[in-house]
Amino acid sequence: MSWLTKTLTSSIGKKVLMSLTGLFLCTFLLVHLIGNLQLFKPDGGYAFNKYAVFMTTFTPIKVISYANYFLILFHAFWGLYLEYQNRKARPISYAVVRNQSSFSSRNMAILGTILLVYIVVHMGDFWYKFHNEPLPYVQYTENVTTGQVVTKTMDSGYSQEVKMAEMTDAVAGTHSIIVKDLYKEVATAFQNPLLVIFYILGMFAVAYHLYHGFQSSFQTLGWNHPKYTPFVKFIGTWVFAIAIPLGFAAMPIFFFFK
User: Fold this and answer.
1) Final residue in a domain of this structure, among 152, 180, 208
2) What is the pLDDT of residues 99-129, one digit of tens each?
3) What is the per-residue pLDDT for 106?
4) Residues 195 and 175 in one domain
5) At residue 149, does pLDDT exceed 50?
6) Which of 73, 165, 213, 227 is most enclosed, with most CB atoms within 10 A?
7) Residues 45-70: pLDDT tens digits?
8) In which domain, by residue range, is 162 found?
9) CATH code for position 126
10) pLDDT for 229-253, tens place per residue?
11) d(CA 39, CA 157)
């Protein structure tokens, strides 16, 4: 194990850890966006609330989620540690700065800190409330033949032991579920203009952070080739720095004006 320890504690090894954890978090962002796109379905939250239950009850997903929480903290604090080491190695700034690097590459630590604050607020707004607070329940009854869904808000104070109660009426040809209405919580939260602005600003930080981080991760891992680098830059720019932040930013805007 000594060779592994020496490798990971070396200068390049520390950067490799940042790259690998960063790319994992990029994958998580993409999957998270795809799931959250259920919010745009005009079904009263039927698809999104089922998705929320699946993400918090399916064991493999739960394991990956908790690993993701750890990696977010590790990536953030490891990045601050590397920034501290870089500044410690060069305590005196150059008198003349001729820096052709991008804004995002020069401010990765600041952008990462902003994102950590954003994630804490986001988790408190929705993840914590879904797991620990008595949110309202909603019942969805789907006609298995036509696919039509009827929504019914449960009485105040209703609660259940399981996250999703299911009932099937073979005679009527319907399938019903009762779940916590996280969709309503999202819709209500994004009526607050300050929260909407906060989320949009957070997505600007995501965009700038990923613009540099995605591409530099592949360079650190040695994938720097004239044949592949343009493709990596294209994905890093148009998917991770533009499409994903826009997708997340569209959600609070959608509910604010809905």
Assistant:
1) 180
2) 555 666 666 778 778 888 899 999 988 998 8
3) 66
4) no
5) yes
6) 213
7) 999 999 999 999 999 998 998 999 99
8) 136-180
9) 1.20.1300
10) 899 999 999 999 999 999 999 999 9
11) 25
Phi/psi at 184 (nearest 5 deg)? -65, -35
| Mean of pLDDT values over 202-226 | 88
- SS3 for the chain is CHHHHHHHHCHHHHHHHHHHHHHHHHHHHHHHHHHHHHHHCCCCCHHHHHHHHHHHHCHHHHHHHHHHHHHHHHHHHHHHHHHHHHHHHCCCCCCCCCCCCCHHHHCHHHHHHHHHHHHHHHHHHHHHHHHHCCCCEEEEEEECCCCCEEEEECCCCCCCCCCEEEEEECCCCEEEEEEECHHHHHHHHCCCHHHHHHHHHHHHHHHHHHHHHHHHHHHHCCCCCCCCHHHHHHHHHHHHHHHHHHHHHHHHHHHHHC
Place of tokens 């408190």: 124
Residue 257 has pLDDT above 70, yes or no: yes
